[in-house]
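User: Could you walk me through two proteins back to back? I'd like the raw sequence and the structure tokens for each, with a short line separating them so I can tell where one ends and the next begins.

Assistant: Of course. Protein one, sequence then structure:
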Amino acid sequence: MCQAISRVFARLGEKKNRNTARLKFLVNKLGLDEFRKLVLEERKLLPEDPAWTAFLKSLKVTDEKPLKPATALNGQQRPEGFDAWLKTNVYPQSQKGYAVATVSLPLGDFTARQARALADAARKYVGEPMRLTVEQNLLFRWVSEADLPALYGELRAMGLGEPGAGTIVDITACPGTDTCKLGISSSRGLAGELRTRLASRMVAMDEAVRGLKIKVSGCFNSCGQHHVADLGFYGVSRKKGNWSVPHFQVLVGGQWDHNAGAYGLAVIAIPSKRIPEVVDRMTEAFLRERGKSENFQAWIKRIGKAKVRSMLEDLSAIPSHDENPSFFSDWRDPREYSTGDMGVGECAGEVVSPLDFGLAAAEREAFEAQLTLEAGDFRKATDQALGSMVTAARELVMSKTPVGDSRPDIVREFREKFFDTKLFWDPFAGGKFAQYFFSAVENPPQNPGSDAAHRLVEEAQLFIEAVHSCRLKL
């Protein structure tokens, strides 16, 4: 079946435009029924291949067997700190007498020396197998419960015995600006700062807050899984006068359980240095206002995105460089996050360009589209999302040449001045974000459902972020 799908894609998939050379675009173009028909026809033409079933003989090679017999923990001496670790990092396995132990790895890091010690512990307690988790931790399975105190002692000796797995301090973060060329803001720096602050308050923390998930990405690509967090953040940049300022978009409403049942949408961009205040303000409001047994996702849905934005709006203000220069560098990065001196006039005030005002208007339109989507009016939400993209494109074009309100004129000038010249191109994503705009204008959804409206609202936000990035180049 995989071969048949691959062959259909190889024959009919996009060959010229790299940005649409994806299977999803072919399915969208043909329709699912036609695509299924072509795949099944291709499947009938394929000659029988022994490789299709040969691997079945070796499936048992991945089976795991316990190294030691199942023995209960009862009566075992418990070292200092063990109970806190047991509560958050260990849960019973289906097989009685065995447990799964999670090794917390702050920011997903461990040293070569720790790696060797972990391998020794794995051989000693479980035979050998270890697993990496999507939350950047390690798992030992088939641990005999009686061995948990000894395992904890060894983990603690190697500096990996911290509790808190699966709690609010167990923050997932991508590499961000540390090593990734796509990174816009320091996701690891922010995650490290939040972890330090939250860990100091864990003992007194309410259980409802303790279980929240925070995830951070250095850009809009979801490598840090920000879209499925209770509180998600992804890196963006904004201008203040002649300076660039690291920011994070705040996402709420994501669902990390039930197979990532719902994706969050960005609510507001906040300066990087104020994100800890966002976490404090959101968690305090949640504890103060939540109903009995109401979880964070349900609370967000009940109060609505407009209330969340109003709760955080004052934190979006950027002080001047003279007033607080710390805002112009990122977390745990002493370098100044600046585009350099672009020339200073006689006036001491910082200039706000018409483009900044225009992009703020586009962002407001995109947020209005979110609220309309939340209210269930999918047709109006897609119209507002498209309108926000047109506004952003118009403001960018106006920075180079006058243009009226005619949508065809705006699209034509945007294509000529920014897309064809590759001014709008991202070195890694190419013209993907411009394609979102062109596609929305040329083929707007006719009878959009929830998914189509959600997708267009998200694409509008990403297009506006791309306009911000292009603005920094001008």
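----
Protein two, same layout:
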Amino acid sequence: MKKNILTLALLSSLSVSAFAHQAGDFVVRAGLTNVNPDNNKAAVLLDGADSGLKASVEDNTQLGLNFVYFYDTNWAVEVLAATPFKHDIKLHAGNDVTTLAETSHLPPTLSALYYFDSNSAFKPYVGAGINYTIFFKDSFTKTYQDAGFSDLDLSSSFGYALQVGADYEIDNKWSLNASARYIDISTDASFKVGGTTKGKATVDIDPIVFSLMVGYKF
């Protein structure tokens, strides 16, 4: 009887340790990442005056990549990367909503993660870090180009990021990951109308970023 109890205890210990992160572990994750901007609408200014128009940004889903390095069982550092996100920019004129422009961006984010001691394959964590978002391929739709809109430019953004997430370790190598993070992203959009009128909108994108990924530990 004592032998059986000792065997079960040993197997249990081995099972827990098999799932425990160790210093030097490196995890690569890949999967779907959705950037979902908040619902705020930015005022559109023309030559410094409020035009009464509003601008907003639509969500987008792309292939997300995560690289995680563990310093010990609890602490890790993570880099978030992805294929470029492409967003439609909507123009609101009263109840009328049209697609004004589109933009692409990359949101590399560096975070410190803290994993809670769970003694199981389910490993929840929290994280905090910094984000730098680069916008590119900013362009008006043909409808607005024909109406005289030109020279669209969105400034880069630097802000903080907060997240919660969890890994579920299938075995000693493979795992599933789900996370949600808030990223502080704000951009100044500038453009021209008719070649002379200067337009501007400060857009607080501030998205919630959802990820569902598969991870592999080296």
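The longest helix spans residues 2-19.

Let me know if you want the two compared in more detail.
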